[in-house]
Design a protein that fits this description.
The longest helix has 25 residues. This protein has 3 domains: 122 residues, Gyrase A, domain 2 (2-Layer Sandwich), CATH 3.30.1360.120; 124 residues, tRNA modification GTPase MnmE domain 2 (Four Helix Bundle (Hemerythrin (Met), subunit A)); 153 residues, 3-Layer(aba) Sandwich (Rossmann fold), CATH 3.40.50.300. 39% of the residues are buried. α6 runs antiparallel to α7, α6 packs antiparallel against α14 and α13 packs antiparallel against α14. By secondary structure, it is α/β, with parallel strands linked by helices. It contains 15 helices and 13 strands.
Length: 450
């Protein structure tokens, strides 16, 4: 973290060449740094730009020589993203130009911004709460349409809006109990209201925690493993679904030794498709490692596509293995190589062929249905990070202890302590009361320039 009086600068666009590059500045010296970096075509100094009004002009290096032309704006505190004097310069997206502009900013008195420092200052200056700050990072990292939508709701402040009324209710209850401890005559009259307040808060936090599992799916996506015996058509199916020759396909059983992955977007959710090694008694150390990894993949997968070679009858052991996995997660059983079958009426599973395309629509439908079930109620889900869930669970534990304390007639001081601890956890979620070490971790995960 930089000191509040430092003026920070960073390139905000991704590395590489592009049409536009952006340099950001924030801090008390922003105006003077801008006067050295940018000369508007109208001759206006930075102070005369007007809030958020784009100006065209020359962009200069550390020697004051023009190196590019572009646009810039300046915004005075507190009406800016960071709540400080703030500016952005838009130049051509050549890394050489951007580095020269950044060098000029540093030469003029700015310092390099660490990752997340702009958003950290926005949080510290009250422009957003901590959950909204985390929503900014989620927007940048969103891996699918649904994840993006949920990240936007977090950045908009939906979690903050849910937590603030809970915190306010518990704060009032805590204050009333503390007052009653001093003036014990009022205890009997207010006890029912305190119990009701705590019980309501417990229900509301439990409702929020229902979002945790869906949040994990939105963020991490689904894992779907393609499994089966060696040479059952797993790699051919994998290639057909991703429409790319990624996995080696041969007639030699056991060709796939390691797990191969590819990502698809299905119903707005990121799906990682995994082609695994054939499951059999391994012939050699390398294949044994592949089989072991395949089993590990099946255990962590959200769903399985099990391939059965249509030219061979499945063994009783394989059928037992399939039933074992069907008992714990969605499994689609495919009879592959249907293009080689003369009698297709004998199979009681879905026929498929990577060569003719038969059955592939049904496989995609299985992926779609699995994704939609995982996202049940996603339209209104409030995205929870692991940090949020842990703190909400801690608050829930404290409130449950307080509720039990009321019921058993424990000392009010103990109940008040539990409510106070719950409040601390809720405040830590929104950043109202968060140690600097935690802030360092949160904002340290942001990209530079954000």
């Amino acid at each position: 973290m930089q000191a509040a009086f430092d003026t920070i600068a960073a390139i905000a666009t991704a590395r590489g060449r592009g049409a536009i590059g952006v340099l950001r500045l924030s801090g008390p010296m922003t105006e003077s740094v801008m006067d050295k970096l940018f000369s508007s075509a109208s001759g206006r100094k930075t102070a005369g730009f007007g809030n958020f009004k784009l100006r065209f002009g020359d962009i200069k290096n550390s020697l004051g020589e023009p190196i590019d032309s572009g646009l810039a704006f300046f915004s005075r505190a507190p009406k800016s993203y960071t709540g400080e004097d703030y500016a952005e310069i838009f130049c051509h997206g050549n890394p050489v130009i951007l580095e020269k502009v950044l060098e000029s900013a540093l030469h003029s008195g700015a310092i390099i911004a660490p990752p997340g420092e702009f958003t950290r200052r926005a949080f510290l200056n009250g422009k957003m709460d901590l959950t909204q700050s985390e929503g900014v990072d989620e927007l940048i990292r969103a891996s699918s349409e649904k994840h993006l939508s949920a990240a936007w709701r977090l950045q908009r402040g939906d979690l903050k809006a849910k937590l603030e009324p809970i915190s306010e209710k518990l704060s009032r209850t805590f204050a009333h109990i503390q007052g009653a401890i001093e003036f014990s005559d009022d205890v009997a009259d207010d006890a029912a209201a305190w119990k009701r307040s705590v019980s309501e808060a417990i229900g509301e936090i439990k409702e929020l925690l229902k979002n945790a599992e869906v949040s994990a799916k939105l963020r991490d996506g689904l894992i779907v493993a393609i499994a089966g015996k060696p040479n059952a058509g797993k790699s051919s199916l994998f290639n057909a679904l991703i429409k790319e020759d990624r996995a080696l396909v041969t007639k030699v059983a056991g060709t796939t030794r390691d797990t191969i992955s590819a990502e698809l977007e299905v119903s707005g959710l990121n799906v990682t498709l995994l082609d695994t090694a054939g499951l059999r008694k391994a012939k050699g150390t390398v294949e044994a490692l592949g089989v072991e990894r395949a089993i590990e993949t099946l255990e962590k997968a959200d769903a399985i596509i099990w391939t059965i070679d249509g030219t061979k009858k499945p063994s009783a052991a394989e059928e037992k293995e399939i039933k074992k996995w069907q008992a714990v997660k969605p499994v689609l059983v495919l009879t592959t190589k249907s293009d080689l079958l003369e009698n297709k009426g004998s199979s009681d599973t879905l026929l498929s062929s990577a060569v003719s395309g038969e059955g592939l629509d049904k496989v995609r439908e299985f992926l779609k249905t699995t994704a939609e079930k995982a996202l049940c109620g996603e339209e209104s889900v409030i995205l929870l990070k692991a940090r949020h869930s842990e703190l909400l669970k801690a608050a829930l534990e404290n409130l449950s202890a307080a509720e039990s304390g009321f019921a058993s007639g424990k000392y009010l001081e103990l109940c008040a302590d539990e409510i106070g601890s719950a409040l601390s956890s809720l405040w830590e979620v929104t950043g109202k009361k968060t140690p600097n070490e935690i802030l360092d971790i949160i904002f340290g995960e942001f990209c530079v320039g954000k």
